[in-house]
């Protein structure tokens, strides 16, 4: 019984000393999902309001959001592979380039279907 307690305390000490587990891939995918969600929200607002809404990814400031409107920062370590500007139209369609988020040598692609305005996330 004492041996088991000693082993568990040793493992616990090692885990605490190592710090929290951090997955670059999960962090990158989480950021991509947040950006895609904000893009989908912009599309829905364009449809609802009947106006064209611009949505930008700003590589210099590492943020994204509607222009003008609330801007969201990317998590530490995640970067935008270049500036991108998307337009969401009242009929649900969209225009814009393919954008990429990167972290630790990995990248995730954000695509917008020009006809339907559907936002997709692709990557490892």
From TrEMBL:
GO terms for cellular component: plasma membrane; type II protein secretion system complex. It is found in: Cell inner membrane. Residues 31-115 form the General secretion pathway GspH domain. It is a single-pass membrane protein. It holds the Pfam family GspH. One of its GO terms (biological process) is protein secretion by the type II secretion system. It comes from the Bacteria. The keyword NAD does not apply. The keyword Membrane applies. Keywords: Cell inner membrane, Cell membrane, Membrane, Methylation, Transmembrane, Transmembrane helix. Its main location: membrane. Transmembrane segments: none annotated. This is Pseudopilin H.
